[in-house]
Amino acid sequence: MTTTELDRVPELAPRDYASPLASKLERLWATKPGLIGWLASVDHKEIGLRYIVTAFVFLLVGGVEALIFRIQLAWPNQHLLTPSQYDQLFSMHGATMILWYAFPVLTGFSVYLQPLVLGTRDMAMPRLNAFTYWVYLFSGLYLYVGLALGSAPNAGWFNYVPYASRPYNPGLNIDFYALANILLGVSTTLGSLNFVVTILHQRAPGMSINRMPILSWGTLTISVGNLFAMPSVTLAFFLLWLDRQFGTHFYSPPSGQPLLWQHLFWMWGHPWVYVIVLPALSMVSEALPVLCRRPLVGYTAVALATVLTMVLGFGVWLHHMFATGLPNIALAFFSAVSLFIVIPSAVSNFAWLATIWTGRPIFNTAFLFFVGFIIVFVIGGVSGFMTGSVPADWQLTDTYFVVAHLHYVLIGWNLFAVMGASYFWFPKMFGRMLDERLGRWNFWLMFIGFNVGFFPMHITGLLGMPRRIYTYPDGMGWDTLNLIITIGSYIMAAGMLLFVVNVFYGLKRGVIAGPNPWDAATLEWSTPSPPPPYNFVVIPTLASRTPLWEERLNEGPYRSQLSEGTPLDHGKEVLGTSSLDAQPNVILRMPEDSIVPLLLALVLTLLFAGLIVKAWWLVIACLAVGLALQLAWLWPRVELRERRP
Amino acid sequence: MKRFFLGDLAGPRMTAAKVGAFLIATLNDSAAHAAAPLNYLTGHGVRSRPIATLTWALMIISVVVVVIIVALLLAGLRRGHGFSAPAPGTQMPVARPPGGASWIYVGVGISTLVLFVMTVWTVVTLAHVANPPRTDDALRIEVTGHQWWWEVRYLSPDVSREFITSNEIHIPLKRTVEVDLRGADVIHSFWVPALSGKTDVIPGQANRTWIEADKPGVYRGQCGEYCGEQHAHMGFEVIASTPEEFEKWWNSQLEAQPNASSELAEAQNTFIAKCGICHTVRGTRAGGHLGPDLTHLISRRAIGAALLPNTRGHRSAWIADPQHLKPGNYMPRLELSGPELNAVSTYLDTLN
Asked: Of B27, B187, B327, which is closest to A162 when you measure between CB atoms?
């Protein structure tokens, strides 16, 4: 991608997806046929779907891991799994869900939807977009190679030292985890950069920052957050790897400090909790109002609350460490921030309630998921409020109460929102509706299964059941509740299975959706479903937050211009606009499809494979090939106007 | 269709209410502690009681908040404005009715007030329970967390009165007990729910906590931080008794074991040869420090870090195959012959 000045007066054309102009754009933007074409695609819709599908596969795998160890915990004194197998399973479950499902699935929705809701044709850096997907996929496979070799992480997803250090954990288990995380961090960081640039510079003309969809506020906020948070965890894992393999002592006493790990980890880890829920919350804020037939109540408040949550999210990491013997004054401060971070969440919560109260809801599956989401959101919120209070947390921490809390937050705030969003945006992605009858079964099984499966964990926690125990004696008051939990988890899994069935059914037999099945308000619904490779045949111009509802809302003197716009067809072109006011200031040339991102991701993964077995010749070879590939990637090209012809 | 939908939502709520009622009934019962030994909703000492009260307050507020929000949500759905989904693409009415913003003002206003009150309560409780009361009378002990058992050293100004025991902590009633926490290997967490919350045991870091009991009894403790394969079985017990009984216990623990009588000499020699590298029995040549001190083993209630009741049968089973009962622990399978096993068991029976 290069930037030139606005080098011509853009011509105007009518919006017509059957015109010769559309065919020309189709030729310019379409992914080439064949396997190589597919592998080389840089189309954000293609990549977004790959992210979503991959993340759902990880969700199912992580779910199966949990279903296995739930059998072990259903009754006291079970020995289905050895302690070592149990430890690897629960660690893999946590890592898979939090790192390889929860964030990537949201990234997938963002990669798919952001260019569409912003009124542009691709992400700002399309090849980088492909690269981040491949690195994400390979980092997950890298971790699972560890599992296949019997060397899966076994110290929990937050991997505390010294247990995770070499004297106590001599296998390669933790090295797989550390290096997989560094690899994933490359993907997350680059992906976040791509979102920041896209959202700040490629919004349709007229989409000033205060007209940007809440969806984009969520993605922008967490992408900026990631840029500050990721270095911490990458450093933490890198130092751990040095400690383990090269005899440094960053984390081992007397010269090092075990608590250094916890600080570095949670300085990323708590912001990360918000990173994997805020985009989900913003999907609800985007879709719920459509199903309530009104604009979101309190757009500005919700947008600012999103940003405020992220900012405060950087000031609460110590609440994971309340029991580590820190000074009381620090405990008091972090406790107060941990309680007050509830306020921005309350803003969103009351905005949704008000939207439902003052709107006219459509009772469909997506809406059911959003209602279920709000209930679970509140329960997860108040249990967080309880653990935010230091003295109470000294009891609650590391019991099943925290397990209940984190599942209400991660399943409730992330998965229920993602499910609702899937029902909502599936018709846009595939042009067909998901089945409503199956959808209802899907919802009720998941909602009931989830609450039966996770609510009793609050009680086992209050009855003192520690988390991460591979079995427990009878007579502790936990037996019946654990059996109920296991039954609930299987009910929920059945619901999840119905979703998979519904997706396959919907792809084949779903009712044809048309461009705007929900009569929604934002730009992505102004294109055909599924959208053509170039998204918009002409670039729209915005005058409000709800361009497709303007006639009916009849607010203000101006109207968005969707039926006519600039076609930008002198190549793969998009419009660059200014960050705040979205005034057009440059016509950007986008790169063609390329296999180089895939090759570079492969080489990078191979390099990490070399690191784990310490095959230095391989590492050096990968560095050399990687450098050559980067030269090929970045070589200035005439068609991108990076050099003169 | 809407009626069906609302009826179904009420289902899980009813269940939650029943569970809540059951929970409250159970926990206010004095027998609750026997039914759930690690529960912390009733405090049994000056430190844990304010924490239990605070936890209940937080919990009640939480339940009230959930009930209010769910009620508002259901009422909002029931208002009769809703409709079922029309065919895809149908144009539906759209409006921006006024009045939404006041929800945010009122809701956030009330939330902020509640949060402020609870923050003050939190900080006041923290100030009250974080540090032990200033007293010259406090008993001091040192607890070391090992994978996966607890070493307990009783400290005294008179060094000759110090001794080491394991997995069982005796304390005198109504006296502050300061606990210095030492980490031997990985991070553990010292936790006696009825008496105090968790404080982590971190190698290279001197942490301190305190406990105090005001009713005699046996309080179960447990490692609260994941520490490896046998984290599940890293329990201990705190036994609170009157100062007189406590003093008597201390004095009895100070005694070394006499050299075995002639008929037991063979058994003692077997024990020293097979077990003495790792375990100590004061008064004998068994002086190992890798495993728990066994000097007064028979006086303890449990073996294997609160794993099994301390009976001869369990002791023999443990010695015969510790890896079966607690897989992954650091006591190896000794491959003892029948007579050797019998000899070791017989000798252990005398360690009162």
From this structure: B187
The H or E element that residue A387 is part of is helix A365-387
CATH architecture of A34-321+328-509: Up-down Bundle (1.20)
Residue B8 scores a pLDDT above 50: no
Scan residues 535-594 of A and list those with Cβ closer than 8 Å to B: 549, 552-553, 555
| Residue B25, pLDDT score | 54
pLDDT in tens, A498-526: 999 999 999 999 999 999 999 999 999 99
What pLDDT, in 10s, does the model give residues B268-303? 999 999 999 999 999 999 999 999 999 999 999 999
Q: List the 234-273 stretch of A: residues with Cβ below 8 A of B.
A: 252-254, 256-259
Average pLDDT over residues A414-426: 97
Q: Name the residue facing B104 among A354, A390, A549 (closest C-beta).
A: A354
Confidence class for position B33, pLDDT limits 50, 70, 90: confident
Token code pair at residue A417:
């929102």
- The dihedrals phi and psi of B54, each to the nearest 5 degrees, come to -60, -40
Cβ atoms of A70 and A485 closer than 8 Å? yes
The shortest CB-CB distance from B54 to any of A162, A298, A391 is to A391
Q: Work out the mean pLDDT of chain A and round it to a whole number.
A: 95
Contact A554, B94 (CB under 8 A): no
Note which residues in 70-89 of chain B have CB less than 8 A from chain A: 70, 72-73, 76-77, 79, 81-89
The residue of chain A with its CA nearest to that of B37 is: A476
Q: Give residue B261's pLDDT.
A: 82
| pLDDT at A1 > cutoff 70 | no
**How many beta-carbon pairs below 8 A join chains A and B?**
328
Residue B101 sits at the chain A interface (C-beta within 8 Å): yes
Q: Which helix (H) or strand (E) holds A617?
A: helix A616-634
In Å, what is the CA distance from A318 to each residue of A257, A310, A325, A406, B236?
A: 16, 16, 11, 16, 28
pLDDT digits (tens, 9 = 90+) for B251-277: 999 999 988 788 889 999 999 999 999
Phi/psi region, residue B113 (left: phi>0; alpha: psi -120 to 50; beta: rest), is: alpha
Interface check A16 vs B, CB under 8 A: no
Residue A458 tokens, joined: 């609050």
How many angstroms separate the CA atoms of A336 and A319, rounded? 10
pLDDT, position B23: 59
Model confidence, pTM: 0.94
Comparison of pLDDT for A592 and B16, the residue scoring more: A592
In angstroms, the separation between the Cα of residue A616 and the nearest Cα of chain B is 32
B119 with A374: Cβ contact below 8 A: no
Smallest Cβ–Cβ distance between B204 and the set A257, A451, A467 belongs to A257
- For residue A461, what is the nearest residue in chain B, using CA coordinates? B39
Q: How far is CA A260 from the centre of its chain?
A: 27
Option in B90, B96, B327 nearest A83 (CB) = B327
Nearest to A294 among B62, B97, B328 (CB): B97
Q: Is A267 within 8 Å of A232 (Cβ atoms)?
A: yes
User: Which of A214, A180, A195, A189 lies closest to A285 in space, CA to CA?
Assistant: A214
Q: Is A540 helix (H, G, I), strand (E, B) or coil?
A: strand
User: Please, which residues bridge with residue B219 across strands?
Assistant: B238
Alpha helices in A210-293 (DSSP H): 214-246, 258-275, 278-291
pLDDT in tens, B85-106: 788 888 888 999 988 899 999 9
Q: Please determine, for residue A424, whether its predicted confidence score (pLDDT) is greater than 80.
A: yes
B-facing residues of A in 328-357 (CB < 8 A) are 328, 331-332, 335-336, 339-340, 342-343, 346-347, 349-351, 353-357
Alpha helices in A511-615 (DSSP H): 550-553, 596-613
